[in-house]
User: Fold this.
Amino acid sequence: MIMPTTVKNEDMIVIGMGEIAVKKQSMSVLSCLGLGSCIALCAYDPVSKVGGMVHIVLPQGGNKEGENCLAKYADTAVPLLLQEMAKNGGIRSRLVVKLVGGAQLSLALGLDGAFKTGERNTAMVIAALTKEGIPVAAMDVGGNRGRTVRMFLDTGKVTVRTAGNETKEL
Amino acid sequence: MENIETSINDDLSDRGTIKLVSEGINKAVSGLSGMVGRQIVVNDLSLKKMMVKEVPDLFGGPEALMVGVYLQANGYGEGHMLVGYSPETAFKLISALLGESPQSIENLSEMEQSVLGEIGNIMGSFFLGVLADNLGTRLLPSPPAVMMDMAGAILDIPLANMLKHGEDTFIMAATFSTPDGQIDGKFLVVPVPVIKNIYN
Assistant:
């Protein structure tokens, strides 16, 4: 399982493509920067203060060799995040789950559906959560702009920023 | 047409493939030079092996605002080309070609997108033309997708495809500019292994 190696400062943990991070009772901020078609799946237990984020890249993969692949694909990243949350003391029934990303940055024709990946990612994440019986508390998905998402682990607050726009709370 | 100068890093491992791709990139930049009517040189051209997640760092980081023109290479396998500029450079190119200042620096109008798309189309066609001539096959660029947004978001599509194959990738990256630095940009070609397989 690939854990983030980028720490911008002592409080900010940047989760790159195909990475996952779960922390307990922390003052850190988990972040996915410049999301296009990718999905940042955020989960937080407000009682045990366990928070996790996974940066999902593709809806599903074929040959998933080794744990390192699991976080990349929506169909395996969702159960992976839930398992890691549970390992750290997060209780499934208390989880507040939010989705960010899944944009289609271009409507250019003739690109063989390449830019439809965001839509497929969103659908697969929601399907996987439904399968696990986990409701989605909020989401900021779709559209045609990139996003940066931050989750503050002391409160579970999730913020979303698009290029040139102000940050809003999800 | 003036000669385009290149410098190639000495630590490249496959000079045959590098020579072909660098010839293509030089040709692409010469196409741009012809369009804007100014000398544009390739300052640095290198084959890099890097972590896929670090590719946005080539453009200032995943949150850095950039203008990207993305094209697919149709005709053989899965190939991606991306020409990236800072917004300032993109607007200078637009001004040079349209003869007028941009209407807004926060968004691209349809005309401005069309201009940048055409630049990308010319560069992509010139690049693929070199490969096609050497390979004896037909390679055409897709219609261009012009985007102004965070670098990470623009690069998502080619990077997602790279991550299917592993955590790191070979990437051919070139920086180009006018001698006075007024216009500068980057040209990325991925995945190089596909081109290596074709060439070998």
Notes: The two ends of chain B are 31 Å apart (CA to CA). The helical segments of chain B are 15-36, 87-98, 110-135, 151-163, 192-199. Chain B has a mean pLDDT of 78.
